[in-house]
Amino acid sequence: MTEDLMRYDMLVESALRAVVKNAVLRAADEGLPGEHHFYITFRTTEPGVVIADFLREKYPSEMTIVLQHQYRDLAVDDEGFSIR
Length: 84
Hints:
The structure is a single chain. The protein is of the alpha+beta class. Helix content is about 35%, strand content about 20%. The protein contains 2 helices and 4 strands; from the N terminus they run αβαβββ. It has helices at about 10-30, 55-60; strands at about 40-45, 60-65, 75, 80. A two-stranded antiparallel sheet has the order 1-2. The protein has a two-stranded antiparallel ribbon with strand order 3-4. The chain is globular.
């Protein structure tokens, strides 16, 4: 007999993604206050990731960036974010 599961792990993951998205949306609108910052780690091989060729060569699978004082044009949508 197959038992339906609540999949709390997936509910928690979804909630955490919403927290991150809302925090980045707020930063895009208001900037980051004080010493607040984001460490963002992502796979450089994922579809839609656009980075300079020299960065892709240096970080062929994964890259971490820090958003704190020096960034501009932070844009956020349902699919991801971009910065310059």
